[in-house]
Structure formats: structure tokens, C-alpha cells
Please model this.
Amino acid sequence: MKLLERTRRFFHDDETHFVELARHFFHRFFDNELVSPGGEAHLTLVHALALLAVPAVLYTFYLFSVYDDIGQFFQWLYPVVSLIDRCRYVFFSMVTIGFIAVLEWDALFPDYRDYVVLTVLPLKSATVFTAKVAALGIFVALFTVDVGGLPALLYPFVEAQGLADPRVPFLHLARMILAHGLAVGAGSAFMFLFFVALEGLLINLLSYRRFRQVSLYVQLASMIALLSIFFLLPTISSRVPIWRRNNSLGLYLLPPAWFLGLYQRLLGIHDAVDAALARLAVGALVLAAVVSAAAYLGSYRKYVRRSFEQSESVSAGPGWVARLLTRLADALVVRKPLERASFYFVGKTLARSSKHRLYFAAYVGVGCAFVVEGLVGLFAGRRTAGITRADATLLSVPLVLSFFALSGMRVVFPIPAELRANWIFQLTEDERRRECLAGVRKAMLVFVIVPLFLVLFPVDAALSGWKVALVESLFGVTLSLALAELLLLRFFKIPFTCSFLPGKANITVLGVFYWFAFSIYAYSMASLEAWMIKHPLSLLPFFALAISGLAALIRYRNRVLDEGFQFVYEDEPEPAVRRLKLSD
Model:
């Protein structure tokens, strides 16, 4: 508290209110749809910081025995292994800070609420602007230090164990600590400034309404890309020594490699490739800082004025494409009123709620990461020359994507959008509640299954002909429908309307079950499909069996619904005392 008071006096906060504004903007980073407004914000912050700090610290402790063995028995491995590990630290910190920037996308710039609340107060615009920038800087510095601070102090001591003489002079050890901290900090700063610059450019170049539309897709694409890159971290980092030795183009296309080059130069390693990468890193950091600062300055008044002037016009009606698709859905898919209600409620919530949107994008991103990792291993491996369309890795692509997309949608369904508004559903519930569940199932069909296989069908047709592509699409659609039925088998809720109590499930058991189910659904079924394509006579009995199984699932679901049910609006907590019910 004494430090805060000194800071207030230093900035003359009683006159400028700079410190109070900075605190306000800083807390706004944690006051969004991803944090419960009624929750403890400081506890959320502590949990987030602890979670982000753990992976790099655990990896550092794991490396101690690795470098100890290198120092004693495998001295020749030290240059390659240390290069890979340095790349992984830089890589991990940059991707993590990128995640944070994407999650805080809507809070990076002043928004409509800031404009409405602050412009009526006797505050200077320059003070508001600098307070926002200061809060932004403190926010990114906090997470950068959290992710990379402790490893920067520990890793140089661990790496020194791999040297022939581990008694490293203090000045050299200090240089290693400084190089690690500066490289990781610079890479993290670049990643955060990149997304600030990207959003600032979109704000300045697009109209407010168009920005809100494009921003959604940019945020989702960024989330998916970061997750895909994160899962490729081991593969990419292990190839960096080869790329560096061959001066490969991949190094210059990969931002973490730029800051790895800066890391090497700060360590005093004189290499032409590292020198070029270090110059690229410094240039990219300066460019990101200049563009983000210019975008921030240019958009500060412009953006809040746009949001104020156009806030009423943002909710304009849908375009002709949306109206056409709506008419087709009403005529062909959801003909009953309650089906339409739940169907469109699911679609609108996923489109408008950033919380549900990002959770769903995270699942899709993991699926994309598995696909990219599999394709990279396929095309970079020994089988490159003999790849055929019937390869199980290629056939698993739609199954992997459908599994994670459908599972992601099922995971976000129990998370409430606005719990206090569920009274409308409780008041209007009647005996036709089965139609609502039918609308939910059709939402999974229309929003996930149909678009996925419509997009992949032309690719399959171009690679293997339309007949084989049709068989592959029917195979994937059949399995996807069965998976959707299983996921919603005992789901007696209207999505986004029930209170949510996290922590009830056994994560370990559930994780093992999901991994087992995913392996069978995606990879075992892909291998079976590859075999059946080579033996076409097996297709007919398979589809007969698959359709019979799907029909059996539907009959079982209808029998469960016929027994009667009520929608659940309050999630029951775990009982304090469990009864064995031996007398029942």
C-alpha cells in the first residue's frame, strides 16, 4: 500500500487521476465474459498466473538430469540440445502471450463503455490514453515475467551442467541469464504488439460494423493457428538445428526463430544465420511497436466516436445470404416453432458470446493441431513418395475435425450465457420440450457436420474422384451423426441456460475416456475406411451395420425421452455426504 501511495503522489493522482485510471483499465482486462462478474478477480488472476508458470518450470527441472548426462557422457550433443531447448522456451512464451492477447482482444482498445463513462468526467484525453497504455504495458509485463521469469533464472544453471566444466564464471552465467530473459521478453513483446497492431489496423481501415464482423473471424483464426503451432512445438524445435545448418527458408518464416537468433547473438555466438535472424527480430519488434503505437493513436478517438455514433446501427438486419439460408433452414430442417427457437438460440449464442466462441474455437484449434501434426509427419516422413488418397492419415482428417468440433459444442452447451435470463425458458416450457432437444441436435448437424463435409468434399473429389469422395463423405457423416447422438444421449438442458458448477467431473477418468474414444473414432475408423476403399465389397455390409447402429441409438434416445423428463436449470452440487443406499 505504501508503494501505491508513493505512486499516487508521484503522478499527482489527486489532480490527474492517472493511477486510478490505470488501475481501472488493468482490472478491465479481467472483467470480461471469460471471468465471472461475481467471482473473485484476484483469485482468477492468481490461478491463471500459477497455471501459466508451471509448464516452463517443470520442463526446466526435467532438463537438469538431461544436461547432467550430457556433461558427463554426451558432450557432443550439447550444441544441438541447447539450441532446441532455447527455441522451445522462446516458442512457448511467444505462443502463450499470443493466447493472452487473443483472449483479451476486445479489451486491448478503449471500447464503447469507456467512452460513455469517462468522457462525461473532467479528465484529459491524454491522461485517459496514457493510462490505458500504461495498463496495457503492466498487463503484458506481468504475464511475460510469469511465463519466462523463473526459467530465465533457473535454465542457465541447468544448461551449464552440460558443459565440460560446469564451473561457469559468474559473468558468463549472468550473460546467459540476461540473454534468456531479453530474448524471451522481446519475443513475448513482439507477439503481444503484433496483435495490438493487427487490431489497430482493422479499426482504422474498416467501418465499425465491418470491424466487428471481421474481428470475430480474425480472433477465431488466431486462436486456431496458435493452438496448431503450439502442438507442433516439439516437431518444429527439433528441426531448427537442421534448418539453421542449411540456412533454410523456414527459419525466416518462423517468428520464434528470429528471437532464437537474437538469443544466440546475445550469448556471443557469431554465426551469419543467427546475425540475420537477430536483425530480423529487432526490426520486427520495432515495426510492431511503431505500427501498434500509430494504430493506437489513430484509433483512440476514432474508434470510441464510431462506437458511440454507430452503436444503434450495429444491430442492422441480416444480409441477403443470411436471409436465404434462414429460409432454407426453416423449410428443410427446422419446421416446428420450438425446434427453430432452440436451433437459432444455439447459433446466435455461439456467434455473439465471446466466451462460448473462444471455448469452441479452442476445441476446433486442438483438432486442427492434430491434423497439421499428422500431415507434417506424413509429408515429411519416409512415406512421402508413396502417399495415396487411401492413406489412413489423410482419411482421419474429417474424423479428427468432426470429433473435436462436436465435442467442443457439447462442452460449451452447459456453460450459461446469461443465467438471469433463463426465466423466459422456464415460463414457456411445456409438453413439447422434445422439440427443443431436436433443435439442439439439428444445430450440431447444420453448424458442424454439414459445413465440414461440404468444404472437404471438393478437395476429396479433386484428389480421388467424386465417387470415392462420396463414399468418404457418407462414411464421415454417418460416424458424425452417431457421435452427435452419443454426446446428447442424456442431455436434458436447453443450451446456455443452466447454472454451471465446474469441478464435478473426474478429469483424469474423463480424459482417459475421451482419448480412448477419440483414438477409436478418428484413427481406428480411418484405418478401417482405408481398408474398405481397397476392398469395395466390404462397404455395403459396413454401411448396413452402421445405419442399423445409428437407428438403434435413435430408438434408445426416443425411449428415454418417452419416459418423461424435465429441463434442468440448476446444476446440483456434489453432496457433502454420500449415501451408500444399502437399504434401498
